[in-house]
Amino acid sequence: MKVYFLGTGTSQGIPVIGSDHPVCHSQDQKDKRLRVSIWVEWDNNSFVIDCGPDFRQQMLTSGCSKIDAILFTHEHSDHTTGLDDIRPFFFKQGNIPIYGHERVLKNLKKRFDYIFETENKYPGSPGVFPIEVENNVLIESHSKKIIPINAMHGDLQVFGYRFDNFAYLTDVKTIETTEINKLKNLDVLVINALREDAHNTHFNLQEALGFINIVQPKKAYLTHISHTFGFHEEIQKKLPENVFLAYDNLIINI
Question: Which parts pass through the membrane (predicted)?
Fold first, then answer.
């Protein structure tokens, strides 16, 4: 299974528009971060988790030419705004399955009503096949049994997803023990770590490392990074030997 980090930045991306912060002027490509998303491939199957406002650019850069499904973690714009850009995939493949919490699907239908339209549909618009994700219910698709992981992003419920011995969680602030138990025996865990300072709705570095220590994956990658965290290379020096700061266009094989 191949995991491609399409984006590893927080909601504003890095560089932030108009910012004079030193990280926003870094010449290191690892400090340039699009909005957070990954592409997971196995046996010619292709799933994307979240499609934010950088989706088109991410698809072109990564060379992704097929999407069998999109899994949504939650409805915030940095995770969903690129939905219209599934059009090239739709024109080749037909309706694209999208998975999300019932609340998320309702939100997307309200914001992208023309995509969900079934009668008098505008011929240039894409189409989707919405599938509700429920906690404790496996997603069985394309030879995989994908486990939803329920967590909280402040007061908002979010889903992470486990594929075999790989799990991806972002925008997490709290998570119940019953859900943590679904993350045992991982080869790789991806988890958000916004910055070093505390935040109301996201893990900071200390919380993310504490979570990694509980889950005990063989390797962990940090994502959803803010410019206020600091420079990539300086952050990496602070991390334990099995914890890595993810960056855009990083590819890992599991």
Answer: none
